[in-house]
What we know:
Blueprint: H1 2-16, E1 42-49, E2 56-62, E3 68-73, E4 79-84, E5 92-94, E6 101-107, E7 113-118, E8 130-136, E9 144-152, E10 154-160, E11 166-172, E12 175-181, E13 189-193, E14 206-209, E15 212-216, E16 221-226, E17 231-236, E18 242-247, E19 253-257, E20 260-264, E21 272-275, E22 279-284, E23 290-298, E24 306-313, E25 327-328, E26 334-341, E27 344-349, E28 352-358
Antiparallel strand pairs: 1-28, 2-3, 3-4, 4-5, 6-7, 7-8, 8-9, 10-11, 11-12, 12-13, 14-15, 15-16, 16-17, 18-19, 19-20, 20-21, 22-23, 23-24, 24-25, 26-27, 27-28
Amino acid sequence: MKNTILLLLGILAIISCHKTKDEGEVKGSCDLKTVFKAPGGYTIQSVGTIDFSGFKVESFQFVNEAAGYVMATNTGGYVRLLKTVDGGKNWTDVYINILHYPRGMAFRDENYGLISVYDVTGCPNNCADKCVALKTENGGNSWVIIEYPNLLGYLHHLQFDEAGQLYATLSYGTQTSIVHSDDGGATFNTLYQAPDLVFAISTFSFQLYQDKIYASGTGGSILVINKNGDLLKTIQAPLSTIWDLKVIDEDNLVVAFTGAVLKTTDGGNSWQSIFDGSARLIDFSTPEKGLILKSKSYCPSDIYQANDLFAATNDGGKNWIEPDETTTNLAIFFSNSQKIAAGRYMMFFREKLLELKEN
């Protein structure tokens, strides 16, 4: 398992190092810069710091502006779960006796949550491939093990919708499915399964939007599925390897690929480039107003070094507002961000929780 994790980190580093035609080695920009800078119209501050002691953030979630959870793992597969009740200023460890490798986390509210795990029973020679999760109904004070006898594989990317319905991807060998639970994860049933459904651990998997699911398909396709499991249409994008997707409405989508950010204003019939380079999406609240994390340039060095920054747009990506300086290796330590209120975003970079806020 340790070798698998190291291999995945190596793949991520290779993808993160991908250079586009405009991402060269920029002379004079290779000093080590550790200060986080915000684009004009925004401020950025460190909310809190966690001493992970060799652990890496796998996922985090705020269930409201005060309460949130962080799941962190180390290369041995051990897990730490931490909780905050003051908006991330202070964190306390939540006891969780996981004998298996965690795969995903989702909380419906401050008390009710699930952590999916990779059951290592019988491994490495005779893995049982059981689908297992841990459930808490009291904010992590106690946990119950749930086994799903009708499913084989591992649950990833757990997401509750606004009605409390739970969705996830199920990975088993080369087969990927989207599964659904209407009882908070007590049981799951297969919602959609097809050969062109793509599974990815760290990149985009699916997004819930109103009564639809936008899922990653082969060759850069986006599968639009209703919540009954019917495929409504397939949107074909001109590039592959989707890192992030933001559905603004049914016509307006923004997609971060490896090496480019594209948008469509007509539901995928045509596409426009709004940034020719590697980036991660923070948000697009309207077709005009957006935030991304840009990789600006790379440095000639034996150790990977990139110059990254947050950039904002108010005209749909025609122009980008950027801070006056980059931050070293900002993108490679980015996992995901969460919008917790209008114009307010939380994200972890290594041990620091940052708040990016519109003025």
